[in-house]
Amino acid sequence: MTRRGRSAREGARSRTRNVAADQPPFEQPRMRLDPIRAVSDDELESIHQASLRVLSDTGIDFLDETARQQLSEAGAEVDGDRVRFDPDLILNLVKTAPEEFTLHGVRPERNLTMGGKFITNTSVASPPFVTGLGRDRRDGNRDDYRNLLKLGQVLNIIHTSAGYPVEPMDIHPSVRHLHATHDMLTLSDKPPFVYSLSRQRNIDAIEMTRIARAVDDATIDEQACIISVINASTPLRYDTVMLHGIQEMSARNQVIVITPFTLAGAMAPITVAGALVLQNAEALAGIAYTQVVRPGAPVIYGGFTSNVDMRSGAPAFGTPEYWQACLIGGQLARRYGLPYRSSNVNASNSVDAQAAYESVFSLWGAVMGGVNLLLHGAGWLEGGLLTSYEKMVIDADTLNMVAAMLKPITVDDASLAVEAIAEVGPAGHFFGTAHTQERYTTEHFAPMVSDWRNFESWDEGGRVEAHQRAEKLARELLDAHEEPPMDTSVRAELGDFVARRVAEGGVETDY
Q1: Which of 164, 221, 277, 384 is deepest in the core (most CB within 10 A)?
Q2: Hey, where are the domains in the chain?
Q3: Does domain 93-406 have CATH number 3.20.20.480?
Q4: Taking the model in full, what pTM does it have?
């Protein structure tokens, strides 16, 4: 988390004064730089054409009868579970998806623009384990889940959760989505998320979001306000529950993030180009299906292509291959005129140098790839198996630095400072000049986790590592959390809905 600096001493005092208030305001960064192109236009076209050949010749399995019937009526060739798409059919369907749309928060102050040059950062989503706040790695649980929601609410650079920041595994799966969504809607007013793990979970979460926003069904059908990620079962398959998620969400005009999880050398060809052909084919098929369900439904092109350690088979993140795939994924999304999702990931098991440099590589690939939705933006460790409080705070620092870097640079007569340079002359300093004094309170940012003290100024307790400073800040941020305002009658209606659905047993599970 970065902040406006006044002086090193005042900045140090502010850390203990109000860390929640001492951060930039809630706003979306905008990409002002040209995204990097990792391949030429001809090479991108080759990936595009190869993807279309995969969809027309090999096809992709849709493991749901309703989906196959809808696709057949739309013009696709259906043979058993296998669906093949004519290239023109795919492209005509994808064209109906919006380039940009509004994602509505529980309160209007939290509305987000998805697409264009806007960037939306999310907290980490879906790890089964959690660590931090002085405790070792442990199973995901509701207490930590609620705490992490609070942390994401207080951190202004986090715009939405886009998933459970840790899985609350102490709640039975049949009713977990009810309690988790209730927590998400009452502890935060940022746009909520639902897992597409059964049709009823989607229905429940949409209704709970409608209640929290105090709007009617017609408004929900007009205003996107909840997200679900749909993963292809790579290679070349969409399973039943994912397709049910598309059916329920897209039919209600809610946001689907189509994300193939393509690991080069395992579920995808070992070459980056081949893995991206598979990613693109699966993404186009899923996006096309959202438009069959409802033309114009909001959908995001998701890229999540990386490689594996071929000695162990374990996924690798923050690698050069992942970096390349981030950049090319952005090129593909822009080719189709779609918002682009990428991720801030790493494979480290702890908050260490590996976690830092792999995250920076993946983050830079995403940002310079033109990302619009940065999933897992803060808190991810251990290849997505572990959430860390300290990593979330450190990542928020990094995201704020990226946001500050993306702000326009002022170049005018005053900022060029020719008069200030003349005033100081040779061998002087600029600390006390009017030019500096008029500007340093609004134009200079300092990371909150960083330690600017010299070695000689360390106190008797010795060196304080970054993760220790981040732990202290995480505790202070949690202490600063306040539940967002919600009308008493709305809160009661939301609670009544959860109680009724829990009494009904929630959703069917196998255990």
Answers
A1: 164
A2: 93-406, 416-443
A3: yes
A4: 0.94
